[in-house]
Design brief:
Active site: 235
EC number: 2.7.1.17
Domain Carbohydrate kinase FGGY C-terminal: 252-436
Shape: globular
CATH topology of the largest domain: Nucleotidyltransferase, domain 5
Oligomer: single chain
Number of domains: 2
InterPro entries: ATPase_NBD (IPR043129), Carb_kinase_FGGY (IPR000577), Carb_kinase_FGGY_CS (IPR018483), FGGY_C (IPR018485), FGGY_Carb_Kinase (IPR050406), FGGY_N (IPR018484), Xylulokinase (IPR006000)
Number of strands: 24
Radius of gyration: 22 Å
Catalytic activity: D-xylulose + ATP = D-xylulose 5-phosphate + ADP + H(+)
Structural class: alpha/beta
């Protein structure tokens, strides 16, 4: 048996699978996020451990014999978090999360340092880990002086599971401390941000062994043999493993809390100026590139809170098929934006509102705005010689046929909708556990069955292209007004 643990922003998912990849059981445990100041986003690392204990207890209650046969655990987690430990392994402050923007000034300073983009392969975004430590040094010097180790969220959970400080290349690529091409910590990148190599965990490939489950936990969970902990990876890389996306030309688009358009790459070809992320994959000798928007279904959640109607109710106001773009233009920058703008200060906009517009029109505008933002990501990826003719579409937003057809038409790409079942980061983590114990990567990381495919509406392409052009023109005008 193999276990995938996915440390998400709002909760942990534990998935138990057999050696054939069949899902035996799934358990979830939720936790919260703290926002003590504007732009801040923090989490108590103890919440991840408590959630893991809760999920394992649920699996053990439902599948005691299967859990006893556990042989490997894979880890996935939200990227860029800064979990700071002292020399005794004690947490020094709440973890600063990926969507925290307090370190915008520090990020800009690091991004301008010589060689940083060349080595890291990326712009230094405010959400990345290195600028967070620069912020701590400037604003919490007494804490910074005690930092002995910096761990990413899933690697703190690994520390609790194994007692060792280990990370993988895919997650570490989002710190701005990793030489992404060489797949190793960079002395130059560490030095320019005031850090040292001894403050970093050891590195392994995501599909390799990265420790062993502590005996005390094996006894507590009723496991009758040794358990290998795989290197694991950042959530998007591991989700790609769950979706069987690791070869050149394969990719997926995710309509989740944030939005992601990811393409697997067989070679390292960064393009930092485009604000495309270039990271190591969770499997060896492979990379991936992705455009990221900070709010996708979160935009619909915002509209839901504002109008007092559930997201499902709002989505239900629209038909199953599109008939043309809205006259209302929505910029989905509720928390700033990454690709292609790298702009932490820009905010969302609704333009072209009519007195007769209501919840349905606003919902359509929000869905189109998210689709246009993902079109921005696709255009940026094209600049790195990425050619995607079809994509796997995943995430909660794909439950809306209207939104998926909008996205397919805006992108000009056919979207494959997976059949019901598990194919995300928790399954990808379990698959990495299998490879860490000897399974073949190609045999394990297969694509999910496809329920149906949504093709672009060629009869509406011209109309949506014109609407996208209006969307593109709005950003620089709003930026000028806000500065």
């Amino acid at each position: 048996m193999f276990l995938g643990l996915d440390v998400g922003t709002s909760g942990l998912r534990a998935l138990l699978a057999d050696e054939g990849g069949n899902v035996i059981g799934v358990a979830d445990a939720a936790y919260g996020v703290s926002h003590p100041h504007t732009g801040w986003s923090e989490q108590d690392p103890q919440d991840w451990i408590t959630a893991c204990q809760t999920a394992i207890a649920a699996l053990r209650g439902d599948h005691p014999a299967e859990l006893a046969a556990l042989r490997g655990i894979g880890l996935s987690g939200h990227m860029h978090g800064a979990t700071l430990l002292d020399a005794a392994g004690k947490v020094l402050r709440p973890c600063i999360l990926w969507n925290d923007t307090r370190s915008a000034a520090e990020a800009a300073q690091l991004d301008g340092a010589e060689g940083v983009r060349d080595l890291s392969g990326n712009i230094v975004f405010p959400g990345f880990t290195a600028p967070k430590l620069a912020w701590v040094e400037a604003h919490e010097p007494e804490i910074f002086a005690q930092v002995a180790k910096v761990l990413l969220p899933k690697d703190y959970l690994r520390y609790w599971l194994t007692g060792t400080y280990v990370s993988d290349m895919s997650d570490s690529a989002g710190t701005s401390w990793l030489d992404v091409g060489a797949r190793d910590w960079s002395e130059q990148l560490l030095e320019v941000s005031g850090m040292r190599r001894d403050q970093m965990p050891d590195l392994v490939e995501g599909s390799a062994a990265g420790g062993d489950l502590r005996d005390a936990l094996r006894d507590e969970w009723g496991i009758d043999g040794p358990v290998v902990i795989a290197g694991g990876g950042g959530d998007n890389a591991v989700a790609a493993c769950g979706a069987g996306c690791f070869r050149e030309g394969e990719g997926f688009v995710s309509l989740g809390t944030s939005g992601v358009l990811l393409a697997a790459k067989s070679a390292y070809k960064p393009d930092p100026a485009s604000a495309v992320h270039t990271f190591c994959h969770a499997v060896p000798d492979t990379w991936y590139q992705m455009g990221v928007i900070l709010a996708a279904t979160d935009c619909l959640n915002w509209l839901s809170r504002t109008l007092g109607q559930t997201p499902a109710t709002l989505a239900g106001l629209l038909p199953n098929q599109i008939s043309g773009p809205s006259s209302v233009t929505f910029l989905p920058y509720l928390s700033g934006e990454r690709t292609p703008h790298n702009d932490a200060s820009i905010r969302a906009t609704l333009a072209g509102l009519d007195i007769g517009d209501g919840p349905a029109e606003l919902t359509q505008a929000v869905m189109e705005g998210v689709a246009f933002a993902l079109r921005d990501c696709l255009e940026a990826l094209k600049g790195t010689d990425t050619n995607l003719t079809r994509l796997l579409a995943v995430g909660g937003g794909t439950r809306s046929p209207y939104w998926v057809e909008t996205l397919a038409t805006v992108l000009g790409v056919s979207l494959d909708i997976p059949d019901k079942g598990e194919f995300g980061a928790a399954l990808g983590a379990a698959r990495l556990a299998m490879t860490a114990t000897g399974a073949d990567i190609s045999a394990v990381m297969t694509a999910p069955p496809i329920a149906h495919t949504i093709d672009p509406r060629s009869d509406l392409t011209e109309a949506y292209d014109a609407s996208y052009a209006r969307y593109r023109a709005l950003y620089p005008n709003m930026k000028a007004l806000m500065t």
